Amino acid sequence: MVYTNNHKIILQILMNEGFLNENKAKEFVIKLFNDDKVSIIINQINEQLQPLNMLIKKAWCEITGQIYWILISTVFDEITRFQSEFSKDQLALLRTIFSEIITSNNGCIQSTICLNLCSLPDVKISKAKAEEFLDDIVNRKWLAYKDGYYYMGVRSITELMPYFRATYENNLNICNLCKQIIFHGKKCNNCETFFHLYCLKKFIMIYNSIKCSNCNTVISDIDLSGISDDCDLAEESVDKIKLSNKKFSRRKN
User: Fold this and answer.
1) Beta bridge mates, 78
2) In 74-216, at which residue ranges do the beta strands (DSSP E only) sit?
3) Structural domains of the chain, with CATH
4) 3-class SS of residue 151
5) Please, which residues bridge with residue 145 across strands?
6) Distances 155 to 6, 54, 68, 183, 249 between C-alpha atoms, Å
7) Are 108 and 114 in contact (CB under 8 A)?
8) Contact 227, 60 (CB under 8 A)
9) Which terminus of the chain has fewer CB atoms gathered within 10 Å of its CB, N or C?
10) Cα distances (angstroms) measured from residue 58 to each of 61, 64, 75, 106, 168
11) Contact, 162 vs 74, CB < 8 A?
């Protein structure tokens, strides 16, 4: 398909917002192209973005399993961009929140504890201003919020991964199913293997099993009710899930 003004409209929306969820992206694609093949349109835009060192990347929210399309730079660390976008104190608070989430046992930080970080020497910001700032970065998907806890947002997971790898290499865990870094999910009580909740939901849909793909222990106390039914994974991720299951089956036999 020829690159058209309709492609440019999708790109402009992403440049303005930084992200689009799958449902909204599908609405735009249907309206502009009379088609619902979002991935095809995004791939066509990415062909034009490649010389500009930019990329529209598909990502999943760890809390909801919702799909997002996120515009990223392939050469610049987005944490550097924050230095011009946020104040020094806001950036100090955000870095501290990232650290608390990554080094925690469950990949989140309680909202009250989050606000108490304002009292740290490096974070000179009032709690009222901090609340406004947190609301803003949740709306912009840098953080996620649910039931009194802050989690890593889908944009941070997608855009800041080079920063996280360089800064917290020894604190990062890998999902046993999709083989990608995981901040929040489910850990097997037996072998301490980690899983994204949306990967587990897909695994259960494929194999009708809630057993750990590493040790075959039943995964208990798991709540997937908040995970979107539209948490379709990329084909390569589904292939990795199937490969993980095959490897375990061979070990078991």
Assistant:
1) none
2) 108-110, 143-146, 149-152, 173-174, 181-182, 186-187, 194-195
3) 5-73 (3.90.1150.220), 80-168 (1.10.10.10), 174-228 (3.30.40.10)
4) strand
5) 150
6) 24, 15, 9, 13, 35
7) no
8) no
9) C
10) 10, 15, 18, 24, 23
11) no
Closest CA to 150 of 128, 135, 164: 135
Question: Could you tell me the two tokens for 228?
Answer: 């979107």
Q: Which of 165, 171, 238 is nearest to 201 (CA)?
A: 238
Is the C-alpha dihedral spanning 172, 56, 197, 223 positive or negative?
positive
User: How confident is the prediction along the chain (253 residues), in pLDDT tens digits per residue?
Assistant: 689 999 999 999 999 999 999 999 999 999 999 988 999 999 999 999 999 999 999 999 999 999 999 999 888 666 666 777 788 899 999 999 999 999 999 999 999 999 999 988 888 889 999 999 999 999 999 999 999 999 999 999 999 998 899 999 999 999 999 999 999 999 998 888 999 999 988 888 888 878 888 888 888 888 888 888 765 655 555 555 556 555 555 555 5
How far is the CA of 223 from the CAs of 86, 136, 227, in angstroms? 36, 28, 9
Residue with tokens 């293997």: 193
What is this structure's pTM? 0.87
How many Cβ atoms from other residues are within 10 Å of residue 80's Cβ?
10
